[in-house]
Structures are given as structure tokens and as C-alpha cells.
Amino acid sequence: MEHSEERKDIRNSPIQIKLPLFIALALAAGVLIGANTFSPSTTNPQDTAKSYLKFRDILSYIDRDYVDTVDIEALTDHAITEMLEKLDPHTSYIPAKDMAMARSYLEGDFEGIGVEFNIFKDTVYVITPLSGGPSEAAGLLAGDKIIKVDGETVAGTGITNEGVFKRLRGKKGSKVNISVMRGSNTKLLPFTIQRDKIPTVSVDVSYMVGDKTGYIKVSRFSANTFEEFKEALTGLKKKGMNQLILDLRGNPGGYMDHATRMADEFLAGNKLLVYTDGKGTRYDSKSFARTKGDFENGPLIILLDEGSASASEIVAGAIQDNDRGLIVGRRSFGKGLVQMPIPLNDGSELRLTISRYYTPSGRSIQKSYKNGTEEYAKDMLHRLESGEYFHPDSSLFVDSLKYKTSKGRIVYGGGGIMPDVFVPRDTTAFSEYLSQLYNKNVMREYALAYYKNNQKQLEKMSFAQYKKSFDVTDKMLQDMVKLAGKSEVEYNAEQFNRSKSLIRNNLKAFIARSVYGNAGFFPVLHEADEDFQAALKQFGRAQKLAKGGV
């Protein structure tokens, strides 16, 4: 798995483990502005006051009389976290020390050295220096191993992603000294890098598939997402696009207003996009299409999978329920609880669930959590065990979960967005050998080495030439297998042959990324992408929807 300075693989404490679950539910809409000031409970004030006094008394007794010295603040944080576990999976408490990390998930930009990295075998590897960033300017290369930061050894010390962020991030203009090991050279190379503001990107790529089909991949809904999306959409229209694939697979969500603005680009008039419903009416709201969008006509397909959550589901639900486009893929995650961020007096924050998202037809996006947080966390495993990744789960298609779109099409609730066209996971080319190649970055490492050894020849080719004529040869595969052996990936002939076609595709894609960036990587990768290929075959049906049919 890749990480950049703004993409974190949070580990260790329970609160850190829970961070990814609720970060993407931050709400930027004006619904919650001014709603987070403290006021006493009016629902059950006597019991609330009694419980508060009880908790205060217990803390006082522990602090004064307990046999050992106790960190009262840490104990309080633990008690709060355990208490919130009894509510829902997304109500959360963030201690003051974790707030900076939590906010960075949705910041439009950050200040640091600008590298995407991975920790492998207790060593920080540079995956890529971010384009235009200070690390690229200083000369860091993909594959470099960061051994020291400001004289402190960070290799072989058990460093975590959080530890890397702490050392590499910093104020614009500040400097950090880094020592890296490059290739097989054991001599450390020193770099002094001046930190700068690094823009984060949420539109991974946009490109034309043939003469008329556009493709845009949005990886999250952050502070700059709508502007990036709008720019990509405009660029594709100038190239002749008249039908679009919007890829929201693996998109965990983010800011609600960027989701509704994106949906508005596809919907004419003042159609309902999403609404929220909470206790009473205080946190109830409705969002409607308001502006003339840039793609209100023309076939539209949205790709979803089990990793698409929150804001992604808002977009997909608005499009599906208004019969504007076709949803292709698998059932989305089902994250539809709205959190209100409430700052506390010590710098910590409570993110309290105050309402639910509903699609225009009335479907709750949120999947069930009645069996507790632990079972909720295992939902993806349960989907795998039930076979839902390979065929639609019939238990979800029941009359009690049946809803109708604006033109009377039947859609189903049950948590998440059900696709109009189900695409099963294709596992025919997957194997444990392939998994090990991914886990140990073997294909990426080989592709980078191949690029360096053939850079001049590759850079003379246009991407169109590369895509059409470049082949991953058997000799290249053999060389990669040798490299895998050095990385302790044991060769398995049967598994290798099963995965060979996908390995060829991935190697070609990774080499393309080194030469052409994401604009080369994704078009090659999509040649073996079953979801993408299935979407291309559905434009006839999407055209019918675009023209008002069902």
C-alpha cells in the first residue's frame, strides 16, 4: 500500500485505528455552522447531570486515593473512547495530540518535502517524489531508502508512518537533512531539502478513451476536489468528449459540499440531491441542484465498489435516483452517518453523529451496525464469505428495501448504493505469488530499474506508440522473477502462470508511470480492469437513460 505525506496508514492505538473510518465524514456544508456550541441536554437533564457527577467523583477518588500514580488525562480519554463505542461506528473522540493528523486528511494542501513513501522491512522507501515538489527538485528518486533524518537513524528502528510525518513535515521555508541509500550503493547520499507547500491532488487522472469517451478518476473529496474535477471535465469536453465514466472506486468520501456540487454538474433544474434526517428537525437539511452544469446531457456511467463511501455514495445516489446515469460495479461501502465536529476546551474534538444521509428516493446510505462495532468492522470479510463480491446478495433484494427512482425504476436500500450493472470481482489471475509481488513492491522496483536502464529509448516514444507496441517480454518476466527471489518471494510456477497476464499488464503500467505519469499508468492498467471494460460496454443503456428512457 502506498502512502504520501497526506495519506496515512494509521496504526497502534484504538483511536488511530478508527481514524480512517470517520475522517471522510467531515461535513463542510453550512448546515452545521454555529451548531457546535455547548448547551445542557434538554432531553433528559436530570440523568445527564447525575451521570456526570458520578464520573467526576470516580475520577477524583482515583486521582487522590489510588495506590499507584495514574495519568488521569489518558484514563479519561480511554473512558470516553469506550463510551462512544456503544453508540455507532463513526461517532469518535480525537485527543488533542491527534488533531493535527486528523485534520490533514482533508486539507487542500500541506507543508513538507513532497514524497510518497512506503515502510517496508523497517525501512522508509521513496515511492515517488511528488511532481513539482521540493524532493523532486533536490534530486530524490523513486526507490531511494531514507536512512537518516537530521542525523537521526530512522531505518531499523520500528518507525511508523506517524513518525515519518513528524520528521518530514514542517513549515514552508524550513530545512531538513536527509541521508538516503540508492540502489546497491551502501554509501549514504546527503540531501538538504527546503520544505514547501505541497498541493494535494484528488483527481488522479483524466483522459480520453478513443474519440468520444472521457474518463475521470476521483480518489477522495477534499478541499480542492470540485475545482480539480471541473478542470478535468472542461479539458475532456474540449477534446470532444460526449460520454463519461466517473470512477469513484475506492473513494472514501470527504466534504459533502464538493459531492453535491459534483452531482449538480450532471443534473438540470432543481432536483433533490441528498437530504439528512436527525433527532427532531435541528439537523435536517436538503440539498438541491442549483447551477447549470457542464455535463447535464450525454451518457454517464459511475464506477463504484465496496471501497466507495460517504460523499461518493451521495454522488452515486443522486445520479441513480434521478435517472441521470448508470451505476456499474459492486455495492458501495454504506457510510451514511453525519458527524458534527465539536471542539473541546483542551484542544481535543468530539465528532458526534447527528443525522443520516438519504438518497432522493428515501434510501438510507448507512449500512446496519446493530450487531456492534466489531461486526461492523468485519463487514467486508462477511461480504467475501457470503460471495457478494461474485454475485449480488439476494438477501438485500427484498420488498422492505425497495424504492423507486424519479422515473419509476426499482432500486434497493440495505446500506450503500446498489449498482444498476453488477460486475463480479475477477480473481482468475490472482494468486499468493502475485500478492507477494505486490506486498514487497517487486514489480514497482523492477519497473523503475527497467526505466532507468532504458530511459532514453522510452522517452523517445509517444504514449500512443508505447501503448500499442511495447511488450513485456519473457526475458523481462524472468528478470523480475529473479528480483522477486532476492526479495524472498518464493517462485511458484503454477501461480506464476495463472497470474502471468496480469503481471505483464502491471509491469507495463508501472513502466508507463515512470515515463508518462498517471496519464500513462491508468490507460494501460485499464486494459486488464474488468470493471472498466464492463463500463465501456454499457453506454447504450446509459444513452437511453440520458435521453429520458428507463
Question: What this model shows, in words?
Answer:
The protein is an alpha+beta fold and 550 residues long. 37% of the residues lie in helices and 20% in strands. It has 20 helices and 22 strands. Strand 11 and strand 12 (213-218) form a beta hairpin. The longest helix is centred in the last third of the chain and has 24 residues, at 493-516. The model is unreliable at 1-37 (pLDDT under 50).
User: What is the rounded distance between the termini?
Assistant: 40 Å
Instruction: Give the tally of β-strands.
Output: 22
> Residue share in helices?
25-40%
Mean pLDDT: 86
Bulk shape: globular
Major sheet attributes: 7 strands, antiparallel
The structure class reads: alpha+beta
Counting DSSP H or I runs of 4 or more residues, the number of helices is 20
Relative strand content: 15-25%
Q: What integer value in Å does the Rg equal?
A: 25 Å
Give the low-pLDDT segments.
Answer: 1-37
Family: Belongs to the peptidase S41A family.
Protein name: S41 family peptidase
Pfam families: PDZ_2 (PF13180), Peptidase_S41 (PF03572)
Transmembrane segments: 21-38
Briefly summarize what is shown.
This protein is α+β, with helices and mostly antiparallel strands.
Task: Break the fold down into its secondary structure elements and pairings.
Elements: E1 3-4, H1 14-23, H2 45-65, H3 72-84, E2 92-94, H4 99-104, E3 109-112, E4 115-120, E5 123-129, H5 134-138, E6 145-149, E7 152-153, H6 161-168, E8 175-181, E9 189-194, E10 196-199, E11 203-209, E12 213-218, H7 225-238, E13 243-247, H8 256-264, E14 272-278, E15 285-288, E16 300-304, H9 311-321, E17 326-329, E18 337-343, E19 349-358, H10 373-377, H11 379-386, E20 402-404, E21 410-412, E22 421-422, H12 432-439, H13 442-453, H14 455-459, H15 463-469, H16 474-486, H17 493-516, H18 518-525, H19 530-536, H20 539-546
Parallel strand pairs: 12-13, 13-16, 16-17, 17-22
Antiparallel strand pairs: 1-4, 2-19, 3-10, 4-5, 5-6, 6-7, 6-8, 8-9, 11-12, 14-15, 14-19, 18-19, 20-21
